[in-house]
Design brief:
The protein is α/β, with parallel strands linked by helices and 514 residues long. The protein folds into two domains: 141 residues, no CATH class; 350 residues, 3-Layer(aba) Sandwich (Rossmann fold), CATH 3.40.50. The chain has 13 helices and 13 strands. The strands form four sheets. The protein has a seven-stranded parallel beta sheet with strand order 2-3-1-4-5-6-7, with helices on both faces. Strands 8-9 form a two-stranded antiparallel ribbon. It starts with a helix and ends with a helix. The N terminus is likely disordered.
């Protein structure tokens, strides 16, 4: 493996959220005041103080995601329970078309206990469909190019990761004393690959890391690339077959199973905790909203979610009483945007607020590179319109400096509405554990949590009004920041509609004035 390949591997370890030697963040930093001289949170504490002694109504928040661990110590008391359904009797007691949907539903499994885990990406599905793809020609050409280019890059990265793992194993075998003593700079060899590996390890250890953590990160990278080749960019993979739905029938609604947790609920559980982890049990952490019920709708696999499932998840959430829906997912291509648009319109008619993560590609959004998004597809001669019940959220870090916008966050003056904390966010993970994650996936539930708080204490406010309050009350930031796609310093206000960050205290103050 050459030095360039090793550099690629080191740079692609960004998705590991806990790296030895990095700054330690307080678990609740995102709750502190936006005006704090240290961490720039969303002023949750101040917002709750304004609400002390006031009555509230329970609000159902749907988490459309990978699943939620409903038995988690910090979530079990705040999970939505379908009171009209008798658990595990195999009967659709409430006749809503979904059998035994106690805490929600899964569109990624079947009644026999089988679940989709890995999935392809949408560009792979479009490539595999070939002439059978019913979308426009330009999208097809763009998707095929993206598939071919990305698959080749991931194959190279997969090989590089494996070579790094092999080189470390060789170092341990040939230089056991130097390795055991973390003296990688003492290793002298004429093999350029081994030398590059030793130099990288030496630098990593000098920065506070360990050999073991480095190996763990490499293995995580290798697993990620394996998944990319085996699932994301594998046109022959058909994980959908276990669902037994008629995928050609995009309007089909009643399929899936009651396993709303699923086999890999880490992401969805983390999102759920940010919104509404139990605020009264004095354990773990606390969510933003203090009177919510979390409805889990498993829709997002390890790969790209399907438009059919996303639309059905929105319908399910709305029909079963959700007033806020969090959607921390997205993809570069859409198979059938119309059915998602129709579901968003349905939610708008039913007064349900949708909150969506802007994505982690460090890209400027333009309506063609991230789906779903807040613009309806054009119909005939009618111009494009935006829903009045949609908030798109980018991610910030912890302090007002040039790195305030998270380096991974998507952005745009039109397609992104607001920013919120999405860096080193501590929240619930499966089996009553807790972890810190990065992503716009963490920023979106910040906004959803504040929306739920408003809808709980001010139930007469419509989704449109709540959206207006959240965006209007956000704190404008007069700051030059690094633009995520090129690191050029630009005004923060140029990266979103509001040019502002979420402020729960200001939002509650504005709600009190209505």
């Amino acid at each position: 493996m050459n030095t360039k390949a090793l550099t690629v591997i080191c740079l692609t370890l960004f998705f590991i959220t806990t790296i030895s030697g990095q700054q330690e963040f307080p678990n609740d930093w995102h709750h502190v005041s936006t005006n704090n001289d240290g961490y720039k949170g969303i002023s949750t504490n101040e917002a709750l103080s304004l609400l002390e002694g006031k009555a509230s109504e329970t609000v159902i928040v749907a988490v459309i995601d990978s699943g939620v661990d409903h038995d988690h110590e910090d979530l079990k008391n705040v999970m939505w329970v379908n009171e009209d359904e008798v658990p595990n009797n195999g009967i659709d007691d409430d006749q809503n078309g979904y059998v035994d949907d106690i805490h929600g539903w899964s569109f990624l499994g079947n009644p026999n206990g089988e679940n989709i885990t890995g999935e392809t990406l949408e560009e792979t599905r479009i490539f595999a469909a070939g002439e059978g793809y019913k979308g426009d020609k330009n999208t097809f050409i763009k998707a095929v190019k993206a598939y071919a280019s990305s698959r080749e890059n991931y194959l190279k990265s997969q090989r590089a990761a494996q070579e790094s793992i092999d080189n470390i194993a060789l170092l341990e075998k040939l230089y056991p004393n130097e390795v055991s003593g973390n003296r990688f700079s003492d290793i002298v060899t004429k093999d350029p690959d081994i030398e590059a590996t030793a130099k990288a390890l030496s630098q990593y250890v000098n920065n506070g890391g360990t050999l073991e953590s480095y190996k763990q990160q490499l293995q995580a990278a290798k697993t990620f690339y394996d998944d990319a080749i085996n699932f994301y960019y594998n046109p022959d993979f058909d994980g959908r077959s276990i669902i037994k739905d008629n995928y050609e029938n995009q309007n089909e609604k009643h399929y899936g199973c009651s396993d709303s947790k699923g086999p890999d609920s880490a992401h969805g559980t983390h999102v759920a905790g940010i919104i509404g982890a139990d605020t009264n049990n004095n354990i773990g952490m606390r969510g933003i909203a203090n009177n919510v019920k979390i409805m889990s709708i498993r829709t997002v696999p390890n790969g790209d979610e399907r438009d059919k499932d996303v639309a059905n998840a929105i319908y399910y959430a709305v029909d079963n009483g959700a007033k806020v829906i969090n959607m921390s997912f997205g993809k570069a291509f859409s198979w059938n945007k119309k059915i998602v648009d129709d579901a968003v319109r349905y939610a708008q008619r039913k007064d349900v607020l949708l909150v969506h993560a802007a994505g982690n590609a460090a890209s400027e959004l333009d309506g063609t590179n991230n789906f779903p998004h807040k613009e309806f597809e054009r119909r005939g001669f009618l111009g494009k319109k935006t829903p009045k019940n949609w908030i798109e959220v980018g991610a910030t870090t912890y302090n007002f400096n040039e790195n305030f916008v998270a380096s991974f966050s998507n952005f745009d003056k039109y397609f992104v509405d607001i920013f919120a904390p999405g860096y080193q966010i501590y929240s619930t993970t499966p089996n009553s554990t807790y972890s810190k994650y990065n992503g716009t996936s963490m920023a979106s539930p910040m906004v959803a949590g504040v929306a739920a708080l408003i809808r709980s204490y001010f139930p007469k406010l419509s989704a449109k009004q709540v959206r207006h309050i959240i965006l209007k009350s956000a704190t404008p930031i007069d700051l030059k920041v690094k633009r995520p796609d090129n690191n050029k310093e630009v005004p923060f206000e140029s990266l979103s509609v509001t040019g502002a960050i979420l402020n729960a205290e200001s939002a509650i103050k504005m709600a009190l004035e209505n």
